[in-house]
Amino acid sequence: MSAADIVADCGATLEPLEAAANSAWWNANVNASDETQAQRSAADVALSNALADPDAFAALRAAQAERNGDPLVARQLDLLLQGFMPNQVDADLRRETIELQSDIESRFARHRGSVDGESLDDNAILEILRTSDDSARRQAAWEASKSVGAEVAPDVRELARLRNSAAQSLGYRDHFALALETTDFDEDRLFATLAEVDALTAAPFRDLKAELDAEVSTRFGVSVDAIRPWHYDDPFFQDAPSAIGVDLDPYLRDADLEALTVQTFAAMGLDVRGVISRSDLTPRAGKVQHAFCIDVDRIGDVRVLSNNTPGERWAETMLHEFGHAVYFEGVGRDLPWLLRTMHICLTEGIAMRCGRLVRDPQWLQQIVGLPASTVAGLAPRLRAASRAYLLIFARWVLVMTHFERGLYADPDDNHDARWWDLVERFQLVRRPDGRDAPDWAAKIHVAAAPVYYHNYLFGEMFASQLTATLGGLVDNTHAGHALAARVFAPGATLRWDHLVEAATGAPLTPAAFARELTN
Length: 519
Ligand SMILES: [Zn+2]
Fold this sequence. Notes:
The chain has 519 residues and is an all-alpha fold. It has 22 helices and 4 strands. The chain has helices spanning 3-30, 34-51, 54-66, 71-84, 91-110, 122-131, 135-169, 175-181, 187-220, 249-252, 257-266, 273-278, 312-330, 344-355, 361-366, 372-409, 415-427, 444-448, 454-470, 477-488, 496-504, 511-518, and strands at 113-115, 118-120, 292-295, 302-305.
């Protein structure tokens, strides 16, 4: 069989299995139950079984060794091998890993923290951290947000051991090394970039944090030394507190988020009405509390899950998720199925670029319709908020990436203490006195989206480089068309770093990101 035939055969086998797994994942998220959870695991196992096929894997390896002249066939071979390789492990180990991860995710979905005997969802806990001036109540809410960690931590460690067993049976140091290599990331270069971002952000972040702590100290009547994690708006301090920037809720309270989203993308020449009609956008019991966008079948069934309530947070989320959606929809339909996708850091980059619009003065004026004088008054605070968001998020990514590398290096290490060492080092947030708890395990990504977080930082760098190349996105059909042609249409025909270079004219570096920190 020719390489082209082998590739086509594998694609034909995987296409319906992936669509079934995506569909089961959607159902498990819009309607969490034992039944949808079991269907999701079964669909994941079926896809994993196909990717474990040793004969197909051997044929793919032989075809790759011959190096076919057709670049699209060669690219599909690379992607297939990246999908097949991690699955060439013991069937029981694969099933055990999938079921344990599913089970942990399900417990996250059902867990609710408790404050003063009252069970609270994530939105209610965030509301306390945003609004309460009572330190004791804030501390209780923060501790409630971490209670899921203690519940799942032993199983998350076990999941890391299982992932390592699989990676080591394939000759890798650990799961961290395997995950990077099968997503086209070189570990040394990744950590060199993280070190560069650390150096770029350290001083401006220290200044920003000092400014914030002065405000926090005044607000709560505590000395700067007595500030603890619950004095910030976000349980992980991964988002900019409104004290630093501007609270846009009063301006977005009456906005129709679906209409704003349609209008934002229409003004770029992109139509999202079809995706809106297939989406599930309102909060409801039995539905997960966050948001995502999924391309179910790579032929047009793109959907968004969101939990919209009026205000800035969900306006930003809608712009972010529909950024993913226009990318999925814009991938060339004439490409082979295997190439009708994209690298995670690229789709996160587009989503983050679109999410940033919520703090763009031009968006507030032209799309939301705020008076020019109001927007002019807000502009300096909007700039400060944008900069604070980038700084705070970059420092948070440093914590997550360093933490996960250490988790897989030795799942039995003292990660409870390591976590706080990293938080103190990168985020300058003091650990609670005498705290002895697995707070790292309360971050769902460690279990559900392992070795993923660096993609957000590379996404931010890509977003900044796109801004430097294309300018603003508001009411800019030229920029919309350029994104569609240069970024969306090629799908996965190019490796992610080559696509960035082709789309922006330069390799991806933190330079444009760094310029946004000094504006
Ligand atoms: Zn995203």
